[in-house]
Amino acid sequence: MMKKRLLPILLLSLAATSSVLAQGLDIVAGQKIDISVGTDDYSMLDVMNRSVLHVDVDYSKCDLASERSQKVGKIIFKPAGDKPFTMFITDNFNETYTVNVKVDKKKKPDLYTIKNIEAERKLEEVRSSEQRFKESSIKAIELTSSRDKAIHDLTRAMALNDTPKNVDIVVRNVTVPVWLETEVIEKNNYKVGNLTGIKYELINVSSKPMILAEAEFYTLNEKTLSVAIENHTLNPGEMTQVYVIKSNQD
To answer: 3-state DSSP call for residue 214?
Structure first.
């Protein structure tokens, strides 16, 4: 049997590409799928919220439009004749879907979206967990119990782009002359109680790799209490975020 492989095709979720679910195919892993397609024009098929690693099909029976599929992020195909055929689709979680295609010359082109019920349930659990994490992360910074905890929470808020309820954020976007080999931009200030958090964007503008150390930032301000660097090693042209916490007290 002659087969044609489409590798890779990155598939977009239906929500990102269409507001209409033409043919929703709710399945469990390993379940075979039966669809009927017309011959006049190409139909489309994707796997919701997953990517396809490859598609195997007998191309003497199926016309698989590889280039168009890659452009739109869906499997675009139509029967090459009036004989049925089977597509074997493997997603990026190594789950395989067997799609049995019957030919119906009267049927118009359609969009088919495979929805893996178990995978969607797990995805929803992850989304719910992330939402709970997000909601918990924007609570007010606690200042009365421990300064170390307040510093930790403020640094975390800057890194996550959160806006805790009791923090005043001032947008700066000012270039700070510090070292010749770098471009340092002061992005935002986060003020709460006696603490000010400063988010910097640092770019290696030299022609050589560089290694950043927290100690270098402590020398910039004697009131610095904490420094956190996302990426300590930067190649030429690379950028990292730096989070500095300083005291507002005299």
So the answer is: helix
Give the pairing of strands 182-192 and 195-204. Answer: antiparallel
> Residue 250 and residue 244: Cα distance in Å, rounded?
18
**What pLDDT shows up at residue 9?**
32
Q: Return d(Cα 10, Cα 227) in angstroms, integer.
A: 39
Burial class of residue 146 in the structure, from the number of CB atoms within 10 Å of its CB (0-12 exposed, 13-18 middle, 19+ buried): exposed
Whether cis (ω within 30° of 0) applies to the bond prior to 8 is yes
Give the dihedral of Cα atoms 177, 182, 186, 187; nearest 10 deg. 150
Beta strand spans in 136-229 (E): 168-176, 182-192, 195-204, 210-211, 224-229
Q: What is the pLDDT of residues 147-198, one digit of tens each?
A: 999 999 999 999 998 888 899 999 999 999 999 999 999 999 999 999 999 9
Whole-angstrom CA distances from 25 to 22, 47, 114 are 10, 9, 5
Give every CB contact of residue 224 below 8 A, 6+ residues apart in sequence.
217, 218, 244, 245, 246
Structure-token match 């002061």, residue found? 186
168 contacts: CB under 8 Å, gap ≥ 6: 190, 191, 192
What's the Cα-to-Cα distance from 93 to each of 43, 47, 53, 163, 182, rounded to whole Å?
24, 11, 9, 35, 41
The vertex-119 CA angle with 113 and 121, nearest 5°, equals 105
